[in-house]
Design goal:
By secondary structure, the protein is an alpha+beta fold. The protein has 10 helices and 4 strands, in the order E-E-E-E-H-H-H-H-H-H-H-H-H-H. Helix 2 crosses helix 3, helix 6 crosses helix 8 and helix 6 crosses helix 9.
């Protein structure tokens, strides 16, 4: 039985990328003030039946989002500066290197640093439970500090405005309203299905998953975190999907609140011009006829 599509997206440089099950659309504000919408087919590798199984699909969605997000950011950066649309795009090895470096830095900052830091306090915080709680607290602190620091950058603040515009556009569609700036303006910029909430859930889930792994030696402790990351991402994805579909439930609403509060940092109120761009991206996806999946 077909189900309505849950659309998602990402803020890019001077624009928004929206995606459906089969196509994505990037709307960018060009230097001349016009909005350019570019639609493209999505790679079908992530649509294989086995990759849609619970737990597996979470990590697949993460990798797929990294690939599409990197391409969208590169494309939007070029177009927002007025470079030719058919200019050189990232090739396979350039894309692999870009994502590999980003992934390695992420592991260093959010896995290596918290794990080693907690290990240094093993004399004062003894036992697997205490060590994992300390490691989780440090990881959460590093995550919040990272978000706070990048949110102070002027260029990032503008991207965060487009992030808010993306959420408002999706809320407008989900409410069945006409996709106009006037309608979108009244909706919240905080969405329960946001990637920011997903990252926060990943950090929280990791505390519980890593609690079942031994602490010694240090190299095994570090390696186990990396090996278990697909499982952590898979569980976090299922939690996010379930909670976002039932966020009006008084029993589950509290589970979504931390992610919504974090979005107060990663989103900003957009202006009407930014809302116009986000709505154009969503219309671009809808025009391809993906309302059902």
């Amino acid at each position: 039985m077909s189900r309505p599509v849950q659309y998602g997206g990402q803020a890019v440089i001077e624009g928004v990328m929206m995606r459906g099950p089969h196509e994505s659309a990037i709307a960018v504000r060009l230097p001349n003030g016009e909005i350019e919408v570019t639609c493209s087919k999505l790679n079908t590798w992530s649509s294989k039946s086995i990759l849609k199984l619970p737990l597996i699909r979470g990590f697949v969605a993460l990798v797929d989002s990294l690939i599409l997000g990197t391409r969208s950011l590169t494309f939007s950066a070029n177009r927002s500066m007025g470079e030719e649309k058919d200019g050189k795009e990232l090739g396979f090895w350039e894309m692999a290197l870009t994502i590999g470096v980003a992934f390695a830095l992420g592991l260093l900052l959010f896995v290596g640093l918290p794990t080693v830091a907690a290990h240094l306090f093993e004399a004062r915080v003894v036992g697997a439970v205490g060590q994992n709680l300390l490691e989780g607290a440090i990881r959460l602190g590093v995550f919040f500090l990272y978000i706070l620091l990048i949110s102070r950058l002027k260029d990032i603040q503008r991207v965060f405005q487009y992030h808010g515009a993306e959420h408002k556009a999706i809320f407008t569609y989900e409410a069945g309203k006409d996709l106009t700036v006037d309608n979108a303006r009244s909706f919240s910029r905080l969405h329960p299905r946001c990637g920011t909430s997903f990252l926060l859930i990943v950090v929280i889930v990791s505390v519980f998953v890593f609690a079942f792994v031994g602490l010694y030696p240090l190299w095994w402790r570090l390696l186990s975190r990396i090996l278990l990351m697909p499982l952590v991402a898979g569980i976090a994805y299922e939690v996010l999907k379930f909670s976002s579909r039932n966020f009006e439930s008084p029993w589950l609403h509290w589970f979504i609140v931390p992610g919504l509060l974090l979005q107060k940092i990663t989103t900003r109120e957009p202006d009407d011009a930014q809302l116009e761009v986000a709505l154009a991206a969503l219309k671009g996806v809808l025009d391809s006829g993906q309302e059902l999946s």
